[in-house]
Amino acid sequence: MLRSSMLAAAAAIVLVAAPAYAQVKWDLPSAYPADNFHSENLAAFARDVADATAGKLAIKVYPNASLFPATAIKSAVRIGQAQVGEILISVHENEDPMFGIDVVPFLAASYDEARKLWLASKPAIERRLASQGLMVLFAVPWPPQGIYAKKEINTVADMQGLSWRVYNAGTERIAQIVGAYPVTIQAADLRQALATGLINAFMTSSATGYDTKAWETMTYFYDTQAWLPKNITFVNKAAFDGLDKPTQESLLKVAAAAEARGWWRSQDKTKWYGEQLAARGMKVLPPSAALKAGLHQVGERLTGEWLTRAGGDGQAVIDVYRKLGT
């Protein structure tokens, strides 16, 4: 009898101690290495969500395209194979020009300009993702884009004939204009492409150059500061709607903090990445006056082309952006 009473009491203690809720588990695929600042920000975001919801919502981050390739992440979240994901939004520019507004060369070439462009374009991007059952949680920029090359590049003409890595419609169009050969390579495959000599020039941030150890194959990094592309972290709207109200509110609060932290870390590490490239033997240089002028001409041409594709909606966003800059 005593033994039965003790067992019953122990069972009651277990029931009291057990959570009074069913834990919700989400997967978050991303395309960048675990030690990249974007991935570190996602890991911090997942930890903060667990803390803020007292463990009710658990998010597991899958970096380096380990769950889905970069180009498949948005679709995976849309159809519910994952509940939340992070993408370089400009990868999907061919789907809708608005997704490529932040890679129009020299439209927004500083962190201040990039922030204003995000404020101006966010509503339009949110509407497009909402039509696909997706909801934006936060966005974080990469450091400004520069040119990596094996040979010296002093003018746009020097880019002719190069095997040029592209990762979205904008970088492919640059290759076409300057007469380079475009080779599509996403971030997770870039280091291997460099090692095998598949490309001899590419345009990306100092962060990606550091992640891929560009100094092992490239000689020059020209800090052109052409644009600041953004990664957007988004959630399947049905999955979000399935959360209770307090959990939703906690998730959105943590997301806002992740965005603020991500912007700060991106800007804070930009100088450090450049120093690391130089310390490892790369020639880190500003673009020559001729190269800068040529790239700006390319930028003006691409801005016009983008506006033609984006139509009145695109012009409206640019108009709002211009007003924010005054």
Describe this structure in words.
This protein has helices spanning 2-17, 37-52, 73-78, 111-130, 169-178, 187-195, 206-211, 237-241, 245-279, 289-324, and strands at residues 24-29, 57-62, 84-88, 134-141, 145-149, 163-166, 181-184, 201-205, 220-222, 230-236, 283-285. The protein has 326 residues and is α/β, with parallel strands linked by helices. Strands 7-6-8-5-9-11 form a six-stranded mixed sheet, with helices on both faces. Helix 2 runs antiparallel to helix 9 (245-279) and helix 4 crosses helix 10 (289-324). The termini are far apart. The model is unreliable at 10-19 (pLDDT under 50).
Give me a quick take on this structure.
This protein has about 325 residues and is α/β, with parallel strands linked by helices. The chain is built from 10 helices and 11 strands.
Rg measurement, Å = 23 Å
Shape: globular
Which series of helices and strands comes N to C? HEHEHEHEEEHEHEHEEHHEH
Largest sheet: 6 strands, mixed
Distance between the termini: 82 Å
The number of helices is 10
The residue fraction in helices comes out at 40-55%
The secondary structure category is alpha/beta
How many strands in all? 11
Average residue-wise pLDDT? 92
